[in-house]
Amino acid sequence: MTLAAGALALLRRGIADPDTQWSLGTFGAIAEFSRDEDEPAQVTMAADILSAITERGGIALRLDARLRPFASESLTKTDWNQRVALCLPEDACAMNGRGVLTELGADTQALRAENRDFILFDLGLGALQADFCVRIDDVDTAASLRQHVGRPVFEAGNPAMGIILHANPHRIFVSRLGRIEVYQPIPPASGKSPDGPHTHVLPKLLRSGRTHPATEPIPPGWIPCAHLYPPHPARNALGQPRPFEAGHLDSFQATLADFGDPATVALKQRVCEAVRAARPPAELTQDRHGRAAARIALRQMKATGDASPALPAWLANLDQGNLDQTDDEAALHGGG
């Protein structure tokens, strides 16, 4: 049994495209991988694994036959986010779930040969679908961390996290679908995450025990073990506005039709048809995800310059009020 052709094509396009971004982790702790268009990268497309490695970080994806993509969109303050969750069945996604700092030995699975003798320490964050590790190349730092093995890293009085922050090691986040490695320094607590590969660890969100944000409609029985973020039509990889790219919108709408929730796709189509038929604004659903989908459809019509005379009234009627997105989600995913 092999990965379905459509899913495989989606992943191959993504790994080859420098404008596609990736993440791996859980709600409260994720690693993100991206690369610049002109950044040197070693891209590999083998029968069982896809990978991309730069001087700033790397990603490797295992082509598991059980992998199922789920495409979705969510609201932001001004437009929308888009993503594809790479999911495994709930009974096939679990990692080690360690709750304390644990030494794992040499990282023999490192993406670069020169890192395979370095020592991995699992931070013990206890998530279901991912392990969160640091990779230490200094014997003194490794010896210092060993003194605190067996303790939670966020335990009061535990100096382990201070040792890690001072050492600025590689961060290695691993799931059943692969790994992301981040080689860039950890920013200071008051600093901004660097462009390109970086990590976020937010203990408050981790304590919720959730596997993904509430705004992401993952079907029951499936767990996201990685994500890909195809090029956005209105923003570049840094989240900055750019001239609208209709081709990017069309491409993701096709992905949504292939891998998204059919009811959501149908609802968006009904909204567009109603607006173009100049029908009066109507609340088409009371469901949270459905309301968000309707608003996104209207925003996408506006972004493409749709001249339907009823569009302003629909926007005024439906695209008002609070977002269906939490500040915590925005902080974790950087706006997607």
Topology:
Elements: H1 5-16, E1 21-26, E2 29-33, E3 42-45, E4 49-53, E5 57-62, E6 68-75, E7 80-89, E8 102-106, E9 119-122, E10 131-136, H2 139-146, H3 160-167, E11 170-175, E12 178-182, E13 198-201, H4 203-206, E14 222-229, H5 246-259, H6 262-276, H7 288-303, H8 311-318, H9 327-333
Antiparallel strand pairs: 1-2, 1-14, 2-13, 3-4, 4-5, 5-12, 6-7, 7-14, 8-9, 9-10, 10-11, 11-12
Q: Could you explain the architecture of this structure?
A:
The chain has helices spanning 5-16, 139-146, 160-167, 203-206, 246-259, 262-276, 288-303, 311-318, 327-333, and strands spanning 21-26, 29-33, 42-45, 49-53, 57-62, 68-75, 80-89, 102-106, 119-122, 131-136, 170-175, 178-182, 198-201, 222-229. Mean pLDDT is 92; it is low at 324-331. The chain is α+β, with helices and mostly antiparallel strands and 336 residues long. Helix 6 packs across helix 7 and helix 7 packs antiparallel against helix 8 (311-318). Strand 3 and strand 4 (49-53) form a beta hairpin. The protein starts with a helix and ends with a helix. The strands form two sheets. An eight-stranded antiparallel sheet has the order 3-4-5-12-11-10-9-8. It is built from nine helices and 14 strands. Among the domains are: 98-106 and 114-166, no CATH class; 246-318, no CATH class.
